[in-house]
Write a structure and sequence with these properties.
22% strand; five-stranded mixed β-sheet; 365 residues; 14 strands; Peroxisomal Thiolase, Chain A, domain 1; globular; alpha/beta; 35% helix
Length: 365
């Protein structure tokens, strides 16, 4: 007889590096953005792992992952040695190899554990969570740590370091004002379900931009051309964003994702208690919902249900969903019994991924 397991999130953890970098301070280094653009992106502060004056690294990606992980483990009352599985999502690892999950394993002092890295950026952490959930649900593992960690500021630094702020390109400023660094984590555990039915999860995942121009690219440091040719580029590593494309197509990806999520879960949007969507309240995103296909009723249903902290931490890629989830849980916005959707939208090839679950962790201490 196959044992049924009930998989629960026990706790969350979060880490952002250094002091908050507000818009007024950032303007001194990279130049200003027009007020209406600032209002549109809605980011008030962000946290960078680099010193914005020198570019020096004050921490690294894996150490941020460790900080968030230790907080989540402490809140859950779980020792690192109890972990069977670590899944980490990042788009900005220190090295091509070893993978960040194994480096985190080393920092946690674990001789042996299953360690998986996913490179999925904004959508990848939800993919990582579902992968871990499935391994717990089938009995492969009992206790898992799922982490999203992003160190984007080292990629952004060449856009402004050593330059007159007035000469930083406006499109580069938009990127610099938008992105932040950080890490978020959750601890999951599987227990035999017993007579009570196990929680029902719903999962959606698709790449809908396979034939489109990439919305975002990080070029350099890979194997696209010989290293000698890479060294002749103006910047060794460069982040490129198709601003018009992401602004117009991004909301369409969200609408498709949230509508599919509702169908898969068998609920109307108004029946969810919380929708964790890191950019869900940004003007450039939310203003396009109706034209992207959300009905007036669906838009009203979203009001008050979106959980995000974009204004405080910026766009944090792989860390965005777990950082928003942590903010929602620790603030009391997400409570036991709530039906929660975790939704990630990734712009490079327009991937969406979503997972719905019933929140079972007690209120955060």
């Amino acid at each position: 007889m196959t044992t049924a397991y009930d998989v629960k999130i026990l706790s969350t953890g979060a880490y952002v590096p250094g002091e908050p970098l507000d818009n007024a301070t950032l303007e001194k280094y990279v130049g200003p953005l027009p007020d209406d653009v600032l209002e549109g992106i809605q980011v008030k502060t962000r946290y960078w792992m680099i010193d914005p004056v020198t570019g020096e690294h004050r921490i690294n990606n894996s150490r941020m992952a460790e900080r968030a992980s230790r907080q989540a483990l402490q809140r859950a009352g779980v020792e690192p040695g109890e972990l069977d599985l670590i899944v980490v999502c990042t788009a900005t690892p220190e090295y091509t190899l070893p993978n960040v999950a194994t480096t985190l394993q080393h920092y946690l002092g674990l001789e042996s554990v299953a360690a998986i890295e996913i490179r999925g950026a904004c959508a990848g952490w939800v993919q990582a969570l579902d992968l871990a959930r499935r391994q717990l649900a089938d009995g492969t593992a009992r206790t898992a740590l799922v982490v999203g960690s992003e160190a984007g500021s080292p990629v952004l630094a060449p856009h402004f370091l050593g330059k007159d702020p007035a000469r930083v390109r406006m499109r580069d400023r938009l990127t610099l004002y938008t992105f932040g660094d950080g890490a978020g984590a959750v601890v999951l555990r599987a227990e035999p379900a017993g007579e009570a039915p196990a929680d029902e999860f719903a999962f959606v995942n698709a790449c809908v931009g396979g034939l489109r121009k990439p919305g975002m690219e990080i070029v350099g440091g890979g194997t696209d051309v010989p290293q000698a040719e890479q060294l002749r580029r103006k910047q060794l590593i460069q982040m490129k964003i198709d601003v018009p494309g992401t602004t117009t197509f991004g909301p369409q990806v969200f609408v498709r994702a949230i509508q599919e999520m509702a169908r898969k879960d068998g609920r109307a949007l108004g029946e969810f208690d919380a929708i964790v969507l890191p950019e869900g309240n940004a003007d450039y995103f939310a203003d396009e919902f109706e034209s992207a296909g959300l009905s007036a009723e669906e838009i009203r249903a979203l009001d008050g249900r979106i959980v995000e902290n974009l204004a405080e931490v910026g766009a944090t890629g792989s860390a965005a969903v777990p950082l928003s989830l942590d903010a929602g849980w620790t603030s009391g916005r997400i409570k036991p019994g709530d039906r929660v959707v975790l939704l990630g939208i990734e712009a490079s090839r327009y991937i969406y991924t979503g997972l719905s679950l019933t929140w079972q962790a007690p209120p955060a201490a």
